[in-house]
Amino acid sequence: xxxxxxxxxxxVAICVVGRPAAAQDDATILVLPFSGxxxxxxxxxxxxxxxxxxxxxxRASGGVATVAQESLADSAMLLGCDTEEVECLQSLADxxxxxxxxxxxxxxxxxxxxxxxTRFESGADPVIETYKFPGMGLDAIMKKFVELVxxxxxxxxxxxxxxxxxxxxxxxxxxxxxxxPSGFSLGRVKTSTWxxxxxxxxxxxxxxxxxxxxxSIRTDIDNAxxxxxEELEDLEALEKRGKQYYQIGGGLLIGGGIVVATGLTxxxxxxxxxPKAQERPIAVVPMPVRGGIGVAVTFRRLx
Length: 303
Fold this sequence. Notes:
This protein is α/β, with parallel strands linked by helices.
């Protein structure tokens, strides 16, 4: 099938589905289903509920509300136009045989539900209202939404739907991770401390080997022949090497011993200190975020 015929079929389809059986008059408002962006599982039903709440408001005010089957984005895609343009909204209204369109978008950010509602009347610019619901449950959002939209667009609030102005704070369960009992523990000694101890121990070991080597050279010097010039030169070189081994070995023994002592002192202090989990308890708080449920972790030092 040629592409032009496919587009024609799609446009005809939206005309048939979007237009009610009877011709709409000027009092009819076509409500397009609200869309939702990155909502959690708990919030996924909110767009449909807000769509129905808007239709109920229109009917309670004496108007005629028809809820379309296609969302604004789907309808505009079939028409091949951009919803940000007034001409697109006008074409959509003409195609669906409605003088007035109303639709909305729901998004969530930083524990706040944001609802943007747009009312478009043929021949006029769209009227856009933004409502924010910080830290509110779904029921509280629905009631507050009815109140705000009624105030913005002059609708009557249904008598059987009282408005609750109180903001309901979401419940947050706080779980404290308990610290292990105090006392000495090698598990609290830092890796860097073990590295210090190990480095010092190696230095001590090398220093001890050099000291032993220098002692062996001293014995060789005592027993070395001294009859010829060559033997005297070898003896001088041997004495020089033995002196170097003695000095380097002594330095390594002293320096390595200091390093080992420092590392052991740090290990004792770290192993006997209070656990960090005791000094800074961790508070884990579940909270809604964009696209799902997040976890807020708070570190607090005890007095």
